[in-house]
Amino acid sequence: MSAPASLSSPFDFGGVFRNTFGTIGRNPAPLVVAAVTYGLIGTLISNVGQIWTGDRAFAPLQSFGVTEMIGLFGGLVISLFNFSAVPVVMADSKGEKATIAEALRAPLTVLLPALGLAVVSQIGITVGLILLIVPGVILALMWSVAVPSMYVERLGVLDALKRSTQLTGNHRGAIFGLMLVLGLISAGANLVLALPTGGLIPKGPDRYLWGALHSLFGALLSTIFAVGISQAYLELRRLKEGSGGETARVFE
To answer: How many angstroms separate the CA atoms of 62 and 148, rounded?
Structure first.
């Protein structure tokens, strides 16, 4: 086992960023198929659900409740895609290729814990954002690598959250920067599509068609975050434990 890296070692922001897009470029098939399978279903629920809610002209309080439930359900499905990206990233880190079947199977092997993790983290982060915003952001950063932690190390919900909290300690500023940059790239790409198609929530007679197109585009863009999360996990393992190859062996 290699010696642990120094606790003062900086988070390799550039390396994680390059590896994120490098992994996507080297593994388009499993990531795209998994994104369409899991991510598209989730984004369709969220995007088309928002259009449907607007069409029904609910009262403000009703609309808030319905929209939140649609968003929560869509988010649960989308969260499964984050697990699909983990075996792809782990295989790529060893110079290997994960198959489409491995990517599709990944969320199903930890389905109940994965859904539990999504529910607990979404509720915790949402409550934090509603209360003072900052606590929600802090929780999101603390728990940012809970998905790869759960899948790679076969942890339960609470242990995965604890593991993520431990790994992200002293590096949450860098993770915030990484998520911000990846988020701006995704938001910019979404805006390019939204401008000629009726806005972020399409209107007009073709609104459901454009909503479906937005959903497909959003699902494909979700690969950036999903892969970035797993790349950040690898980097944090290297910093905390000096484990490059060891991480891959745990995965096996």
So the answer is: 36
Give the torsion sign (CA, 195, 201, 207, 213): positive
Residue 82 belongs to some domain of the structure: yes
Residue 151: closest CA among 117, 199, 190: 117
Assigned domain for 6 exists = no
Residue 118 belongs to what domain range?
13-251
Please report the sign of the dihedral spanned by the C-alpha atoms of residue 241, residue 245, residue 251, residue 252: negative
d(CA 63, CA 49): 11
What is d(CA 165, CA 112) in angstroms, rounded to the nearest whole number? 21
Residue 241 covered by a domain: yes
At 24-63, the pLDDT tens digits run 999 999 999 998 888 777 776 766 666 666 666 555 555 5
Identify the top-confidence range among 45-54, 71-80, 192-201, 222-231: 222-231
